[in-house]
Amino acid sequence: MARKPIENHLPLPVRHVLKELGMLIEAGRKEKQFTQAELAKRVGVGRMTVVRIEHGAPEVAIGYYLTAAWILGLPILSWSDFAGMRANSSVAAYLEKIREHLPERVRTKKGKIDNDF
């Protein structure tokens, strides 16, 4: 029995974002005049993985998408915050703010037992 493609399990907006990210990476690669093979070597994957990234394939690990974007200098994330490993980005500040109010652990809630027959 054949497995269903991962795409069928993803919400439509997620599929659109992956396609857009792939197109952005493809445009960045062409702007830098890299071949797919050159980008693949820099990312550390095979050329076909770059082809799948450029098509927005959901089975490719997000780390490869982000590495390709970083190599191409695409402004997907605030790369300057990662370059020096500084935690002064707005995302880091937001995370620090909400961590103060979060519990250390989250446990499964026990349901109330209804013994009334």
* Class computed from helices, strands and strand pairing: mainly alpha
How many β strands by DSSP?
0
Q: What are the low-pLDDT stretches, counting only 5+ consecutive residues below 50?
A: none
Q: How would you describe the shape?
A: elongated
Biggest sheet, in brief?
A: none
Helix run count: 6
Compute the CA-based radius of gyration.
20 Å
Query: Beta-strand percentage?
Result: under 5%
SSE sequence, one letter per element: HHHHHH
Separation of the first and last Cα atoms: 45 Å
Helix content: 40-55%
Average pLDDT score: 84
Which key features would you list for this structure?
mainly alpha; 6 helices; elongated; 0% strand; 117 residues; 53% helix
Describe the structure.
The chain is built from six helices and no strands. By secondary structure, it is an all-alpha fold. The longest helix is centred in the first third of the chain and has 20 residues, at 12-31.
